[in-house]
């Protein structure tokens, strides 16, 4: 009988970033505009509004394209990782990173998505990046689609709604697999594939005012189907082009608790949990869960499938399951119960949990529960590819940053991870979000900081962009050095 003690020997410790939140350089070296480049900085936009699809309109996109600045569009600016990646990788290497999760900006490779020849400068950038990572013994985990796609495809096809986009994505992915076959072994298709329901523009380029009246759900689920089919197709290509490569799905894990033991609360919670599993179920089991299909049909959503779609889904499932974990949720069937929002997701306030400044409920035990549930359900190797705490950091006079709250957050989560591993869960890695401060996905703020490394830039883009080590930098270094023994 195997007994499990501590983290596995080759545990992949590291961090995760995304091109659209880190690279900047949004219009250099032939890059085309992406949906992320027109997502504006709107501090007044409440999370409820964001979740309610009003985040973008054709008019806002036109205004954004007419405005060359980056002040109101911070994702255009990022933290200039495009030019400073060597310096940043050196800092990650200093912490002892075994891995770094990054994404490829599709619009660097195919500026409008429809070119017949890829943009060499874009391809070269990622080749340089992965080569440098290899040199530093940092294994890349590469997401093909992390909240961005060429804006031209979004405008022309209402994002992933039209089937044509599947072909373009498959071609883009093939180009990446071919070019980086000797550099990248671990791949992910869509970041938080379930998030298409919460922010369809960032996830899938869907512009709400271009959806036929009353057909928003139909458009979203059709687009999702296209993403799921595309995922399966590129999984096939990945395995063929890069022997030994591994493809994962990526889910926002939203473990949900019933507010009380009232069976009505338990039932609504069950629905939420099943809904959360729906996306990864398709990618792991290769078929739509029957209950979800029936629920969608009863809501008038009918997914158009092409001949062969079901077979493709079934034949090319993922090798491992990756997920982000920031919080648990609590659900209640009671009408009018006060609700709170974190990460654009609504739920009832859980009185047992503290929250971050942005209302995200901190629940380390929920991470252990999620790991056990996921492993029990899928029996596939797991990796946590996002987890972290957004906070406002104060820089002391001498430049130091004492972020004990962040250390505490990670320590509590790592203890639970360790217990899950000791309970038998096959967890092979962990990448924190984000090891370096970058632009927040949901708020476009810079002041919502996640990093072990501080970046001198404010919400409006002022600052030197200089990097400095926070206290958590030294702490995480020790964690990696001792493979999680010293927390
Ligand atoms: C996830 C996204 C990331 C990241 C993170 C933190 O949902 O995959 O891109 O940004 O959340 O969210 P935020 O930046 O909104 O604080």
TrEMBL record:
Domain of life from the UniProt record: Bacteria
Active site: 386 (nucleophile)
SUPFAM superfamilies linked: (Trans)glycosidases (SSF51445)
GO cellular-component term (any): cytosol
An MF annotation (GO) of this entry: beta-glucosidase activity
Gene3D superfamilies cross-referenced by the UniProt entry: Glycosidases (3.20.20.80)
GO BP terms: carbohydrate catabolic process
Keywords: Glycosidase, Hydrolase
Family per similarity comment: Belongs to the glycosyl hydrolase 1 family.
Protein name per Swiss-Prot or TrEMBL: Amygdalase
């Amino acid at each position: 009988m195997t007994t499990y003690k501590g983290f596995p020997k080759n545990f992949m410790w590291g961090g995760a970033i995304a091109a659209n939140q880190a690279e900047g350089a949004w219009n250099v070296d032939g890059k085309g505009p992406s949906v992320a480049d027109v997502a504006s900085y709107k501090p007044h936009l409440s999370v409820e509004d964001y979740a309610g699809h009003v985040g973008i309109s054709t008019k806002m996109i036109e205004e954004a394209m007419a405005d060359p600045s980056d002040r109101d569009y911070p994702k255009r600016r990022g933290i200039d990782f495009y030019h400073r990646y060597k310096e940043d990788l050196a800092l990650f290497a200093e912490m002892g990173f075994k891995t770094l999760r990054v994404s490829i900006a599709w619009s660097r490779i195919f500026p409008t998505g429809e070119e017949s020849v890829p943009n060499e400068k874009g391809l070269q950038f990622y080749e340089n990046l992965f080569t440098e990572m290899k040199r530093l013994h940092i294994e890349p985990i590469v997401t093909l689609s992390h909240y961005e796609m060429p804006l031209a495809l979004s405008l022309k096809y209402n994002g992933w709604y039209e089937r044509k986009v599947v072909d373009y994505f498959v071609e883009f992915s093939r180009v990446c697999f071919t070019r980086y076959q000797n550099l990248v072994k671990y791949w992910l298709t869509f970041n938080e594939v379930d998030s298409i329901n919460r922010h369809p523009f960032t996830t899938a380029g869907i512009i709400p005012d271009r959806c036929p009246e009353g057909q928003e759900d139909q458009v979203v689920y059709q687009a999702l189907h296209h993403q799921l089919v595309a995922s399966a197709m590129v999984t096939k290509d990945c395995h063929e082009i890069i022997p030994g490569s591994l493809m994962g799905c990526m889910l926002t894990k939203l473990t949900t608790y019933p507010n009380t033991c009232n069976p009505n609360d338990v039932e609504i919670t069950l629905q939420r949990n099943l809904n959360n599993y729906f996306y990864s179920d398709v990618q792991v089991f290769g078929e739509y869960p029957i209950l979800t299909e029936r629920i969608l049909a009863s809501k008038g959503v009918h997914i158009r499938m092409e001949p062969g779609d079901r077979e493709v889904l079934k034949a090319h499932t993922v090798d491992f399951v990756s997920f982000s974990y920031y919080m648990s949720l609590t659900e209640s069937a009671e009408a009018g119960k006060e609700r709170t929002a974190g990460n654009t997701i609504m739920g009832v306030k859980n009185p047992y949990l503290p929250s971050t400044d942005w209302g995200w409920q901190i629940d380390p035990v929920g991470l252990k529960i999620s790991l056990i549930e996921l492993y029990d359900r899928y029996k596939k190797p797991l990796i946590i590819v996002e987890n972290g705490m957004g906070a406002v950091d104060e820089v002391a006079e001498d430049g130091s940053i004492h972020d004990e709250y962040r250390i505490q957050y990670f320590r509590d989560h790592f203890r639970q991870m360790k217990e899950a591993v000791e309970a038998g869960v096959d967890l092979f890695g962990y990448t924190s979000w984000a090891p370096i401060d970058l632009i927040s996905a949901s708020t476009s703020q810079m002041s919502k900081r996640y990093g072990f490394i501080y970046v001198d830039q404010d919400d409006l883009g002022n600052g030197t962009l200089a990097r400095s080590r926070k206290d958590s930098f030294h702490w995480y270094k020790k964690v990696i050095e001792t493979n999680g023994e010293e927390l």
